[in-house]
Specification:
Growth Hormone, Chain: A
Length: 427
């Protein structure tokens, strides 16, 4: 019996390690949007609302592709769905050079939509898979730990992205926007996405070699579950709304930070330097997730979520009322408190949903479309304020207030079985 348990633990541990690499990959890809916004704004002569369409194109994919992704997961199984997702991401990266050669911003948006559709399938597969790979009572810990590696990707992404996307060409000191400087900056965008495509291709090959280990450890509950079943569960709907608000708030802040830190009333630093500082925002989330994964073994998840939402809301309030370094570092510090929100909302919802795990996961990933909606609202507020970004932080401030309500409701609602573990999906 002991040998069997040890063997099972080894299989799930290996599968957990393989799947966690995916969290790093999509974190890296998603965080490149932040410096890309500053790049396309200048290269294509865009307003804030127009530049934030890069964010909208990315996160609209979650709303469009999540339910089909749940069907694909049920049909293909975990490993084949993950490989299909990575191949889709590679194809999206290849569209970017075509779009820039044609000087079409719309083509860049299409490429981002395709890449994000692949990321959506990864999220639908990987989040519930990590939650299921081990004892159910430690699902909060495992998903927060995997999300910590996601944050490692989001920390590295803005730094590397700013170095590639926001240097030379139209971003060189004293540069004038000409055909030559625009072309140089467009080629930098090409280089960044082609390099990312190579990375995704290598990761797909890696997962292909590990597919048997992943499938051997994967739960069988995914098979045959209709994604539409989640619409019958109030907690699945509530959780999807919370994910919508959280992702929208987090992405709105990340989308604004490069231009916010660059502005004369805040730090008045070059765009490249401001873009690299955004790594502090995502780095805070990484540190918080590593620390949070440990805290979640001791502190009730809903309580820790409430503490983090309140702190993030207070920091947003500081940003709206101040300027200079105070506002800059308050905005960057929000990342620390964002850290455990996504995995905690995800697992709290899985615990309380009456729908199958795969169906609930699909609906929760639909909620990520909030990253397309709230940044647009923030961008329009910034444009209406004459390019001043401080008032736009009222958008995430209200979001964190709503998430505090979710945390309190989760604390007052027991999980679907007595020990607080994720209830098994119905058969």
């Amino acid at each position: 019996m002991t040998d069997t348990r040890t063997s099972t633990s080894h299989k799930t541990g290996a599968a957990f390690a393989y799947v966690t690499t995916l969290f790093f990959a999509w974190g890296f890809a998603t965080s490149l949007i932040d410096p890309l916004i500053a790049a396309v704004k200048r290269v294509f002569h865009l307003s804030f609302a127009e530049a934030f369409l890069t964010t909208s194109a990315w996160f609209i994919a979650y709303g469009v592709a999540s339910i089909p992704a749940s069907y694909l997961l049920a049909r293909l199984g975990y490993s084949r769905a993950i490989i299909a997702a990575l191949v889709t991401m590679v194809l999206g990266c290849l569209i970017v050079p075509v779009a820039t050669m044609m000087d079409q911003y719309v083509g860049v948006l299409i490429a981002l939509f395709v890449i994000a559709s692949g990321v959506t399938l990864l999220q639908v597969a990987a989040n519930p898979l990590v939650a299921e790979l081990g004892e159910r009572k430690s699902s909060h810990f495992r998903l927060s730990l995997s999300q910590a590696f996601n944050s490692l990707g989001t920390t590295i992404g803005p730094w590397l992205g700013s170095h590639v996307l926001l240097t030379g060409g139209v971003f060189a000191a004293g540069a004038v926007i000409t055909v030559a400087t625009r072309n140089q900056s467009l080629r930098s965008i090409d280089a960044g996405f082609l390099a990312m495509g190579v990375f995704f291709a290598l990761l797909a090959a890696f997962i292909f070699t590990a597919r048997r280990k992943i499938d051997a450890a994967a739960p069988a509950a995914v098979a045959g579950a209709s994604p539409l079943a989640a619409f019958s569960s109030p907690w699945a709907l509530f959780g999807a709304l919370a994910i919508f608000i959280y992702v929208g708030s987090e992405v709105a802040i990340g989308s604004m930070l490069t231009n916010f830190l660059n502005s004369a009333s805040i730090l008045d630093i070059p765009l490249e330097e401001a873009g690299k500082m955004v790594a502090l925002y995502w780095g805070g989330a990484m540190i918080g997730r590593f620390a949070g994964s440990a805290l979640l073994t001791r502190v009730p998840a809903a309580l820790l979520l409430a503490v983090c939402t309140v702190c993030a809301g207070l920091l947003c309030a500081v940003v709206t009322r101040t300027g200079g370094t105070t506002a800059a570092y308050a905005a960057l510090s929000i990342g620390l408190f964002n850290s455990i929100m996504f995995p905690t909302i995800f697992t709290l919802t899985l615990e309380r949903s009456s729908a199958p795990t795969s169906a609930t996961s699909g609906l929760l990933v639909v909620g990520i479309i909030g990253g397309a909606v709230l940044p647009q609202i923030a961008g329009r507020i910034a444009d209406a304020s004459g390019g001043v970004l401080n008032p736009a932080f009222y958008v995430p401030l209200l979001g964190y207030v709503a998430l505090t309500v979710f945390a309190i409701a989760a604390a007052r609602t027991p999980a679907r079985n007595g020990d607080g573990a994720v209830a098994p999906a119905p058969h």
